[in-house]
Design brief:
Blueprint (H helix, E strand, L loop, with lengths): L1 H10 L1 H36 L4 E4 L4 H8 L13 H8 L3 E13 L2 E6 L1 H7 L3 E4 L7 E4 L10 E2 L2 E2 L7 E2 L5 E7 L10 E4 H7 L17 H10 L25 E6 L2 H13 L4 E3 L1 H44 L1 H9 L4 H42 L9 H27 L2 H6 L1
Parallel strand pairs: 3-10, 5-9
Antiparallel strand pairs: 1-11, 1-12, 2-3, 2-7, 2-11, 4-9, 5-10, 6-9, 7-8
Helix pairs in contact: 1-11, 2-9, 2-11, 9-12, 11-12
Length: about 425
């Protein structure tokens, strides 16, 4: 029987290929959507897991997380600088580190922060070591710079009208190990250097966010401030009690306990100057939005699969009708009804089953390529992989395919050999 099936498929290879491709494309659409949505959830959750609490000025919670965790540029409002000193003095806080944004180098964001944050979140150095002076920088694993090379900061993205800070250069002191987060694409410099470069070293209150200003504001800054206060050889000063601090867009906080995290969030949400969020909670809201979009795409994919299934049924029923003489000849030569049923059923099952397997492979390949492109652009990896849920769906699809193949096989089973040969 198997030899007969293989010979028949070889003879009708063009139609067989069309059937396999139709099934594969329909299945790949649904599988790719499912894998990509799951990878985005897992990847973003892993990127945010090292940041327990984020404190910023009142405003958009989502934008605060996107800027502080995923390093997406935006004009965040500033909170008073003394909040940083208060957090460092709080017994519930293990460490608190400021972050400042706005400058770039060759498209990579330059983030002002402290040695504390790097030591608390990064996985060590693959080359070199920590910055020790105001003019040094630490680069993430995805930044194509080596220790000793120069970093030339631009205020804003060059393609969006940003301009180079004249006379300002950082020297790379170290290269971090990969973390699988957007910080792999970041260039980390001392926060005091960011303040000095933007003329924010002395004023305790700022009217606007220098670190997040867009291209238009960048030109205004150049006209109203001197940006040559950075001393590349100056030692780091991370004592936040010396003088008034400039306004800050965000502070990343590591609480000592889970209970402390909830108390800190409550206290700094009640404080009219600040807003405190758990990144995980904000991402959950984003996942809900992604889930809605996924459901819409899943419905579209299911509709596509139903249309393909209906088309295949129609094609196979017509195909069985056209093979009436062949089926009648088999019956006339003594082939039992069960054998005819098995031949037709097995042919269709092989074609649809092969299409399902190719669809799973194609969906996985498409999701992997999209995840790789996303990781190169956004900086954090999206893990693509199958789960038991995908295995259960595969089993359901195979079972449905077997049932669908039974209909044309049943039509062949009931066919009279004498009537077939007469016609």
């Amino acid at each position: 029987m198997i030899r007969f099936v293989l010979a028949d498929l070889k003879r009708l290879w063009a139609g067989s290929v069309v059937i396999v491709l139709l099934v594969a494309l329909a299945v790949a659409l649904g599988v790719g959507v499912s894998l990509q949505e799951r990878a985005l959830r897992l990847g973003s959750a892993r990127a945010a897991e090292k940041f327990d609490v984020i404190v910023g000025a009142p405003g958009s919670e989502t934008q605060l997380v996107l800027s502080a965790v995923f390093l997406q540029p935006a004009a965040l409002p500033l909170m008073p600088g003394e909040v940083l000193a208060e957090l460092n003095d709080d017994p519930r806080v293990e460490w608190a580190a400021p972050v400042g944004f706005g400058d770039f180098h060759a498209g990579y964001p330059i983030v002002g922060t402290t040695t504390t944050l790097i030591e608390g979140t990064a996985g060590g150095f693959s080359q070199g070591g920590m910055f020790r002076t105001e003019g040094e920088a630490v680069v993430g694993s995805a930044v194509p710079l080596q220790p000793g090379e120069a970093v030339v900061p631009t205020h804003g993205q060059v393609e969006q009208g940003g301009h180079e800070h004249e006379g300002i250069r950082y020297r790379v002191s170290g290269r971090l190990n990969p973390t699988g987060t957007p910080w792999d694409r970041a260039i980390l410099v001392p926060i005091q250097a960011v303040w000095h470069v933007h003329g924010m070293g002395l004023e305790p209150d700022q009217d606007h966010d220098h670190d997040h200003a867009g291209p238009d504001a960048a030109h205004e800054d150049e006209e109203t401030h001197e940006h040559h206060d950075m001393d590349a050889d100056a030692p780091l000063d991370e004592d936040w009690h010396r003088g008034a601090l400039p306004g800050l867009p965000a502070i990343l906080v590591k609480p000592r306990t889970i209970a402390d995290a909830y108390r800190l969030r409550q206290d700094y949400r009640a404080d009219g100057r600040t807003l405190a969020v758990f990144p995980g909670e904000i991402l959950t809201g984003l996942y809900a939005t992604l889930g809605d979009a996924r459901q819409v795409l899943a419905v579209i994919a299911a509709g596509t699969q139903l249309l393909v299934a209906a088309a295949l049924l129609m094609v196979t029923v017509i195909h069985v009708g056209q093979r009436r003489r062949q089926i009648g000849a088999l019956r006339a030569f003594g082939a039992p009804r069960a054998a005819v049923f098995g031949i037709v059923w097995l042919e269709l099952s092989v074609l649809v089953g092969l299409g399902i397997l190719l669809g799973y492979g194609g969906g996985y390949l498409a999701a992997s390529l999209l995840s790789r492109a996303f990781a190169m652009q956004r900086g954090f990896s999206l893990p693509v992989g199958f789960t038991s849920e995908d295995g259960a769906m595969l089993a359901i699809l195979v079972a449905v395919a077997a049932l669908l193949a039974a209909l044309p096989a049943w039509l062949a089973y009931r066919q009279s050999p004498a009537a077939a040969l007469r016609n």
